[in-house]
Each structure stands twice: as structure tokens, then as C-alpha cells.
């Protein structure tokens, strides 16, 4: 298939082994290029085996561009919806975010001077390194410095001024995490009537949270074990753990729905997370792409304030009502920090107390006497 030419040999395909032409045609590059333009000769670098013409290459390029323009959005969508979340989830699942060796507790409190010292000492005995108390008392109300000033001066307790603020629990939790999450490996978000309890002999929050089975998780949800009044009338000076020894039955339902009371949880959150938002419930923050477990090390729903209860490893003693006297003087008067005054006044009344506790004439009369004294 070769044609003789005065200056060189023409061929339908001439292999060129480098940027220079072969020895036999060296120096004749301009003539090669001229014939190449006319289509009489095709010049290819080494490694191409098929003699494609210029028009063939243009046609192939058009076909490839058509297919690529069709496939590109599909590939991008698969990458964004599948690969990136899987990679992000895997990376976060196995990352330790802070390594300070310290664990803190955050709470918001109002009218808790009768109970706060025992609360602080209890968590100090569990080897927490710090307690942040957001003081939500009225501007002219009681002050925590009057009862736990020694712990404040030692640095174990920090008081943050949230006095007089309404519906302040979620903002307090958010403020605490935003400011201090880089300083602590974990931060527990509990109320002053909640006491973390272990079912083994550890009694050390550091040893508990350092277990290998918790390594892949950024949050832990721990169930309530709720306690009623144990048929006591009022505070007799003993701490809540000594006074209330019998929990409510496990089939006790919440007052506003058919869920079981003890399916509710509270959270311990790992420090150093980039997206933790307290926006819906004080039971757990809103987290994206983070993983949550229970005390057994089993994966649970990160954003749900409920989970099947299990007390075999750890649980939170929740003294939600205490006695009828304390309910009337404290809970009915102060309300709850995650709701408006109008909201809690509609629900937190004597009828709610007796949904959880046995109604007796003695309790009813005692409550009415306190309410009468309050009005006078």
C-alpha cells in the first residue's frame, strides 16, 4: 500500500517513534505536514496502532462528549449522595476529638439550694472534673454561692449567670458546649434531680467512658429510672437517694403520651464535635453524621430522646416529683427551664403529681395548706 514519492515514501500510516521522524524521513517534516493536511498521510506517535483520520477523531470526540455530558451529573450525584457521606461517617466514627483527659457536667438550676450541695458532691465522687451550673434564679432570688462557695472557690464548680432568663435550658446547653467543648473529652447534660448510677463497682466516669466499646461513638444516651414520692409528705433533711428508694413501676407512662417514662434519656456528648445544636429538646442535641450508643455499647438513634430502657450497666436516677410538699413549693412555683411560664402552669399542677404518685387525703390536705400559706 505504499506510493513512491520524489522526496519520500508515502504510506497510509507512518509510525513516529518520538517527536522527530524516523531516520529515513528525517528533515522532511514540512512535506509530511502538508500531505497530512490533505488526508493522504496520517502521522501517529509510537503506541497508536489504528490509522484514524482527522474527521474520525472529531466524530469520536463528539460521541464521547455526548456520553460524558449525560453521565457527569449522574456521577456527581452518586459521589455527593453516597461516597461523601460514607467517607465522612467512617472518619467521624473512629475519630477521637479531644484528648484532654477531663470530663465535665452542665446543668441549669433554679431554686435548688436545698439540693445542690449533695448534687455537686455526688458527681465529684464520680470523678467528674468540672461542673458548670447555669444560674437561672430570679434576679432577687437565692444564690448558689451561699451553699457551695467552697466548691466554687476551688474551681470545681463554675457559676454562669442566666438569672431571670426565660426558656433558658437549650440556650444554656448550647452556650456551654460552644464555649467549653474543646476543653473536655465528654460533657454530660443532666438536671439537678438526675443522678448517674453504675451497676458495677467502677463509680468512676473516666473508667466508664474509656471502655473500648464506646470508641466509635460521639454521644451516649442513658435511660432514666424515675422515682416517685415513696409516700413521704415533705423534705426531712435526708438526701434524695436516701429518701426515695423505690422507683416507679417500669410500665409507668408519660403524662402526655403513651410512651413509657423510663424510655426517656439524657445525653453525654463527646467534646470537639463541629455540629452540635440544642434546638428541640434538652434530652439530646441535634447532630449530623454522628453516632450514638447506649451504656451497653449498642448503636441507638442519635437524635431521638427515647430508647428502650436497660438498667443493667448504667442509668440515671430521676427524682422527678419528690414529695408533695416539695412539688408545691418548688416545681409548681419555679416551673421548668425549657418551657414558658404559661406552658408549665397548665401542666405542672397537683393533678400531674398524682398521675405519678398515690393520691391520699393526707397529701391532698397538705398541698392545699401550703398553697393557702403561699397566697397569704
Automatic annotation (TrEMBL):
Keywords: Glycosyltransferase, Membrane, Transferase, Transmembrane, Transmembrane helix. The keyword Ligase does not apply. GO terms for cellular component: cytoplasm; membrane. One of its GO terms (molecular function) is glycosyltransferase activity. It is a single-pass membrane protein. InterPro entries: Glyco_transf_92. It is found in: Membrane. This is Glycosyltransferase family 92. It comes from Xylanibacter ruminicola.
Amino acid at each position: 500500500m505504499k506510493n513512491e514519492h520524489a522526496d519520500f515514501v508515502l504510506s497510509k500510516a507512518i509510525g513516529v517513534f518520538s517527536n522527530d521522524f524516523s531516520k529515513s524521513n528525517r528533515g522532511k517534516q514540512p512535506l509530511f505536514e502538508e500531505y497530512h493536511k490533505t488526508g493522504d498521510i496520517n502521522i501517529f506517535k509510537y503506541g497508536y496502532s489504528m490509522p484514524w483520520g482527522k474527521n474520525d477523531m472529531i466524530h469520536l470526540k463528539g460521541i464521547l462528549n455526548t456520553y460524558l455530558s449525560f453521565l457527569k451529573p449522574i456521577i456527581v450525584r452518586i459521589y455527593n449522595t453516597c461516597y461523601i457521606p460514607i467517607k465522612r461517617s467512617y472518619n467521624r466514627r473512629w475519630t477521637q476529638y479531644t484528648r484532654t483527659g477531663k470530663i465535665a457536667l452542665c446543668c441549669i438550676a433554679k431554686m435548688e439550694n436545698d439540693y445542690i450541695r449533695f448534687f455537686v458532691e455526688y458527681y465529684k465522687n464520680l470523678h467528674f472534673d468540672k461542673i458548670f451550673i447555669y444560674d437561672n434564679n430570679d434576679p432577687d432570688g437565692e444564690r448558689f454561692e451561699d451553699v457551695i462557695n467552697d466548691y466554687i472557690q476551688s474551681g470545681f464548680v463554675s457559676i454562669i449567670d442566666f438569672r431571670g432568663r426565660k426558656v433558658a435550658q437549650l440556650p444554656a446547653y448550647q452556650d456551654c458546649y460552644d464555649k467549653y467543648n474543646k476543653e473536655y473529652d465528654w460533657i454530660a447534660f443532666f438536671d439537678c434531680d438526675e443522678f448517674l448510677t453504675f451497676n458495677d463497682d467502677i463509680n468512676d466516669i473516666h473508667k466508664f467512658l474509656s471502655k473500648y466499646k464506646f470508641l466509635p461513638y460521639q454521644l451516649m444516651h442513658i435511660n432514666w429510672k424515675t422515682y416517685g414520692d415513696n409516700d413521704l409528705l415533705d423534705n426531712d433533711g435526708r438526701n434524695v437517694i436516701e429518701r426515695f428508694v423505690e422507683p416507679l413501676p417500669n410500665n409507668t407512662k408519660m403524662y402526655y403520651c403513651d410512651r413509657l417514662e423510663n424510655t426517656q434519656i439524657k445525653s453525654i456528648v463527646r467534646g470537639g464535635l463541629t455540629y452540635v445544636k440544642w434546638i428541640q429538646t434538652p434530652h439530646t442535641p441535634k447532630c449530623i453524621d454522628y453516632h450514638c450508643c447506649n451504656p451497653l455499647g449498642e448503636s441507638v438513634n442519635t437524635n431521638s430522646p427515647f430508647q428502650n430502657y436497660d438498667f443493667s450497666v448504667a442509668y440515671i436516677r430521676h427524682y422527678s416529683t419528690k414529695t408533695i410538699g416539695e412539688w408545691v413549693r418548688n416545681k409548681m412555683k419555679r416551673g421548668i427551664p425549657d418551657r414558658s411560664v404559661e406552658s408549665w402552669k397548665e401542666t405542672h399542677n397537683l393533678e400531674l403529681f398524682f398521675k405519678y404518685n398515690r393520691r391520699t387525703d393526707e397529701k391532698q390536705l397538705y398541698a392545699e395548706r401550703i398553697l393557702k400559706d403561699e397566697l397569704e
